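Reminder: ligand-aware prediction takes two inputs, not one.
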Amino acid sequence: MLELRDLRKSYGGRDVLRGLSHTFRAGEFVAIMGESGVGKSTLLNLIAGLDRPDSGEIVLDGQSITALDDRAATRLRRARMGFVFQAFHVLPHLTLEQNVALPLLLNRMPTQRAAEMLDAVGLGGRGGDFPSQLSGGELQRVAIARALVHRPALVLADEPTGNLDPETAESILTLLRNELKASHACAVMVTHSHAAAEKADQTIVLTRTGLANACVA
Ligand SMILES: Nc1ncnc2c1ncn2[C@@H]1O[C@H](COP(=O)(O)OP(=O)(O)OP(=O)(O)O)[C@@H](O)[C@H]1O
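Here is what comes back for the chain with adenosine-5'-triphosphate:
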């Protein structure tokens, strides 16, 4: 459902991705690991259509993302993807329910599923609260609810448990996994945490020379 074909990306003449190819299947939860600076966030940004490869192609459900202009890429991102990224953090001036409803509003979909998703992540009845009233773990649950509320085909997560204690991290990842499996979405999660990667179906290690399967759980 998501295909990376011979992706190449360099910054200032320095190669980061050198001909990277991989296929992700629907319903698959994949962790991407690799040493610092190897290009994990770069890869996620390319898949998200937030940056463009120098060459190669990214195909989502038969549609080439790399061939789209910025407007079309934004539309596709909005409709078909969900994000658990620092850059798309929960907005402080909106209530929890308004935050979770955002992808629905942007896609002109009915908004009642926002409350259902808050229930699903264990925050039922707190839709009127503001983000400042929540703990770090609770905020990540809101981010997961928002990433999945519009039933995206593809969820992209960058260190979703980066600043959480191990117990909270474990519960967040179990929640993410359960919600992904319920909606049959594919997820690509960048992480440095082996405990987080263990929650995925498959871990892929990004190296200086490409993408190598490290283990398949
Ligand atoms: N916009 C940019 N301009 C210039 N160089 C960049 C840009 N984005 C990334 N890089 C460089 O590309 C390389 C890969 O960066 P990237 O953030 O993808 O690594 P990473 O594997 O996610 O690292 P980390 O685990 O430390 O977050 C780094 O050397 C970085 O400095």
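The chain is about 35% helix and 30% strand. The domain at 2-216 is CATH 3.40.50.300 (Rossmann fold). We will return to this case in the review session.
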